[in-house]
């Protein structure tokens, strides 16, 4: 079932969803089940599963020679989606990313997803590898999310990369990312917004935002979208602060602001438990405001730890 259908069927009631990281290579899928089981109480209609490109590691040989090896740390996205559908009977939403995949590999992945009965995808450029100074596209792949989006749209229209005969149309509901505080590589909010509008005009069906801690930024962003003809659902992405280090790490990694009131509350905490409690309390207030505003879904970035999200959802849903 498409995310847009889930939202329409909720008749204005906010839905609950969350995102999962595949386990590190060699670890059990039981970790995924442990992250999902506690949150099923809140009846998520869909669960996102992230995709991760390859990175580099260096292996030292007995001679002392270092060998640069391509290594994918968190494989298994498609299989995890299949397992979620089979075990929980909810929709799984795999991320699609540019980095690490050629156009042909992307097409084959989309065919696999269609065969599995997966109706939704979230299209992203993806992050740069740790060793790279900036995002570097894979040879034969896409450089930008809008290019990847176009490939999915083409397949929805029956246009494949090489087939010169009539081909079956896919029917994916396509999501894209948005940044209420601007993508860090965009020169200004206006340029960032222009590219978002382009993606929606190309055929994106819903939007999921980067995390934020100031609801006014989401409210302003949604209002601006509506004023400019972007009428698809805009799903807020959420993550509570749970450690004091995140006051530094979240702005550094995700290029977001933390409101003064929240940063002072966290700084005043005497223990890490107090920090987690303060972050969860802030997020509960955020969620209640977002529901009152009319957010269609509250989407949580759990990072494999369901406990903070459970505590928030217990107070909100």
Automatic annotation (TrEMBL):
<protein>
    <recommendedName>
        <fullName>Methylenetetrahydrofolate reductase</fullName>
        <ecNumber>1.5.1.54</ecNumber>
    </recommendedName>
</protein>
<dbReference type="InterPro" id="IPR029041">
    <property type="entry name" value="FAD-linked_oxidoreductase-like"/>
</dbReference>
<keyword id="KW-0520">NAD</keyword>
<comment type="similarity">
    <text>Belongs to the methylenetetrahydrofolate reductase family.</text>
</comment>
<keyword id="KW-0274">FAD</keyword>
<dbReference type="Pfam" id="PF02219">
    <property type="entry name" value="MTHFR"/>
</dbReference>
<comment type="pathway">
    <text>One-carbon metabolism; tetrahydrofolate interconversion.</text>
</comment>
<dbReference type="GO" id="GO:0035999">
    <property type="term" value="P:tetrahydrofolate interconversion"/>
</dbReference>
<keyword id="KW-0486">Methionine biosynthesis</keyword>
<keyword id="KW-0028">Amino-acid biosynthesis</keyword>
<dbReference type="GO" id="GO:0071949">
    <property type="term" value="F:FAD binding"/>
</dbReference>
<keyword id="KW-0560">Oxidoreductase</keyword>
<dbReference type="GO" id="GO:0005829">
    <property type="term" value="C:cytosol"/>
</dbReference>
<dbReference type="InterPro" id="IPR004620">
    <property type="entry name" value="MTHF_reductase_bac"/>
</dbReference>
<comment type="pathway">
    <text>Amino-acid biosynthesis; L-methionine biosynthesis via de novo pathway.</text>
</comment>
<dbReference type="InterPro" id="IPR003171">
    <property type="entry name" value="Mehydrof_redctse-like"/>
</dbReference>
<dbReference type="GO" id="GO:0009086">
    <property type="term" value="P:methionine biosynthetic process"/>
</dbReference>
<keyword id="KW-0285">Flavoprotein</keyword>
<dbReference type="GO" id="GO:0106312">
    <property type="term" value="F:methylenetetrahydrofolate reductase (NADH) activity"/>
</dbReference>
